[in-house]
Specification:
Elements: E1 5-8, H1 13-16, H2 29-34, H3 48-59, H4 65-78, H5 80-89, H6 91-98, H7 102-108, H8 110-113, E2 120-123, H9 130-138, E3 145-149, H10 166-176, E4 183-189, H11 195-198, H12 213-230, E5 235-239, H13 246-253, E6 259-260, H14 269-286, E7 295-298, H15 302-319, H16 323-327, E8 330-334, E9 337-338, H17 371-378, E10 382-385, H18 395-403, E11 409-412, H19 424-430, E12 436-439, E13 446-447, E14 453-454, E15 457-458, H20 465-474, H21 482-494, H22 513-531, H23 543-550, E16 558-561
Parallel strand pairs: 1-16, 2-4, 3-4, 3-5, 5-6, 7-8, 7-10, 10-11, 11-12, 12-15
Antiparallel strand pairs: 8-9, 13-14
Helix pairs in contact: 4-5, 4-7, 5-6, 10-20, 14-15, 14-21, 17-18, 20-22, 21-22
């Protein structure tokens, strides 16, 4: 594949300070002559390989993860191609540095690490000029992706005021193939209730308590309407919104625009989808159907409920069963025990899954029905943990489950790893290697009775959400439908190593995330065309080739100076 050619209007210092077009010491002799760079660069011309080696050596001179994060952020501000090439070549090592978990520390220290502004800041006191500010930041740009955040619920650290969501955009480009020049991170600064930030003289955001109610809703709506008006075929990703806002905002706009949210605290589109894919892979091993499963969800909060709804909707769609019948496949348990109709103060969103009291007459004297009781009676095929109750899946519970099915499917998904319901090594040992396992955090392999390593699948939503987004964008879909997400999950499940070897991992290795997400994107775009929501006139059989053409790859193009070219 030949390198692309670009007509570029920038010269001299301007091109050297453009991260999109800067090549550093990789500018060729002809380009140095044409763009006035001979006196601004040292003599020797380096290849991209040589630049990567130098950058990698410099990176490892940093002794802390936050230092490495800061170094890589500086590189991104200088040279996109070098930045993304380095990340691509060291994907497993560097994603935890630029994303979870190190990015949380970087965001918590954002005001003190601040060097150069990135993205778009829309601030409540400047709401009257929002459209002007929006258009200034997007002028002359073809934006496919907006990643917006009000930074109220950043995982693990909570309210950060102006915590920028740029890391999510990076993952979309790194793993999903989205051109970074067509993506923009947007901070909706509506204040903060973080007293540390409010009292910090270096805090760079609006030092005011968070706006709530109608003022907040109107501010968010103004932003969404600007996206819909000026970039109607873009994807709008909501990131790190608070629990009181995230789900209702998503539901408010999901039928009006292609919107997405993969936060663990709310609708669970991303993590729900990767969990669905993992379960589809597991039932591929057991040669059963989704609707054949008896599923216990241990942890009936937003996370557990989100996964439940995703799995339920997939049963309805894939197995063509009524919603009521699908609801009956689930047993939800919280700290008070099984969710039953007679329990006081059952949340409205749980009522569809509340079990009839008549099913549990033998427990009337004790009142609460706990996890072990449910496992003994239900004989579940699937046990999913979202409780943050470390050790909640005891040896007795796991052994009891294993006695009731040939290949128990056990997903302890709570994060971080210290809060996991069961160490997967123990679950593997207690089931004599029969369990099909996946976790929410990375764990080392377990040993099968044969001595073979059993790779523990990690339900990492980066295995699917970039592909969901890329598929939506290339098809110019008007919405991100449930069927599009389900088809993406099916595509991911089809790549499971366990389908070739039932004792292998349920999900592909994270190092294969770019190729995996490409398959997800193709499936999503094909479904958008199938259901008539796409804004392109492609045929389904054209999608794969079209998607290949549209993938952004970090390579240096050939530059031609043109005063009317790109900037």
């Amino acid at each position: 594949m030949s390198n692309p050619k670009f007509r570029v209007a920038l010269r001299s210092e301007a091109i050297l300070t453009s991260p999109r077009f800067n090549k550093g010491t990789a500018f060729t002799k002809d380009e140095r002559d044409a763009f006035g760079l001979n006196g601004k660069l040292p003599y020797r011309i380096n290849s991209l390989d040589e630049q990567c080696q130098r950058a990698y050596d410099q990176l490892h001179s940093q002794t802390t993860d936050i230092g490495k994060n800061s170094f890589l952020q500086s590189m991104k501000e200088q040279n996109w191609v070098l930045y993304y090439t380095l990340l691509t070549r060291h994907l497993r090592e560097l994603v935890p540095i630029i994303y979870t978990p190190t990015e949380a520390e970087a965001i918590a220290n954002y005001s003190h690490l601040f060097r150069r502004s990135e993205g778009l800041f829309l601030t409540f006191p400047n709401r009257d000029s929002m459209e002007q500010d929006f258009l200034e930041a997007t002028k002359g740009r073809d934006i496919d992706l907006f990643v917006s955040s009000d930074a109220e619920a950043i995982l693990g650290i909570g309210d950060q005021g102006v915590g920028i969501s740029a890391a999510k955009s990076v993952i979309y480009s790194l793993i999903g193939g989205i051109d970074p020049s067509k993506a923009i991170a947007v901070t909706l600064d509506v204040g903060t209730n973080n007293e540390t930030l409010l009292n910090d003289p270096l805090y760079v955001g609006w030092p005011h308590e968070r706006i709530r109610g109608k003022e907040y809703d109107d501010f968010v709506d103004n932003f969404v309407q600007l996206v819909r008006k000026h970039f109607p075929h873009s994807l709008l990703h909501f990131e790190d919104y608070g629990v009181t806002n995230a789900q209702r905002i998503l539901e408010l706009y999901q039928d009006a625009h292609a919107v997405f949210n993969d936060d663990m605290l709310v609708f669970f589109q991303g993590t729900g989808a990767v969990t669905l894919a993992c379960l589809m892979a597991a039932i591929g091993v057991t040669k059963t159907k989704l609707s054949d499963q008896r599923i216990i969800i241990y942890g009936a909060g937003s996370a557990g409920l989100g996964i439940t709804k995703q799995l339920r909707d997939a049963m309805v769609t894939s197995d063509n069963i009524p919603v009521e019948e699908a609801n009956d496949k689930f047993w939800l348990i919280d700290k008070h025990g099984l969710i039953k109709e007679s329990l006081p103060n059952v949340r409205d969103d749980l009522k569809d899954f509340a079990r009839k009291d008549s099913e549990w007459d033998e427990f009337q004297s004790s009142g609460e029905v706990m996890l072990l009781d449910v496992v003994k009676k239900v004989k579940p095929t699937v046990l999913i943990g979202t409780s943050t109750h470390p050790g909640g899946f005891t040896k007795e519970i796991v052994e009891t489950m294993a006695s009731g099915c040939d290949r128990p499917i056990i997903f302890p998904l709570s994060n971080p790893s210290r809060l996991v319901e069961v160490d997967p090594k123990d679950a593997n040992d207690w089931t004599k290697g029969k369990a099909l396992l996946a976790t929410g955090s990375p764990f080392p392999p377990a040993k099968m009775p044969s001595g073979k390593d059993y790779i523990i699948a990690e339900c990492n939503n980066a295995l699917i959400y970039p592909g969901l987004g890329f598929g939506s964008m290339i098809s110019k879909s008007r919405k991100m439908s449930d069927k599009m997400i389900i088809e993406g999950a099916k595509a991911l499940a089809s790549l499971s190593p366990a389908l070739k070897d039932p004792d292998d991992a349920l999900l592909p290795d994270f190092g294969d995330a770019p190729s995996v997400n490409f398959e997800v994107a193709v499936a999503v775009a094909e479904q958008a065309i199938e259901e008539g929501s796409a804004g392109v006139d492609w045929k389904k059989e054209e999608v794969r080739a079209k998607a290949q053409e549209m993938i952004w790859r970090p390579v240096y193009g050939e530059y031609i100076y043109d005063v009317n070219g790109e900037r």
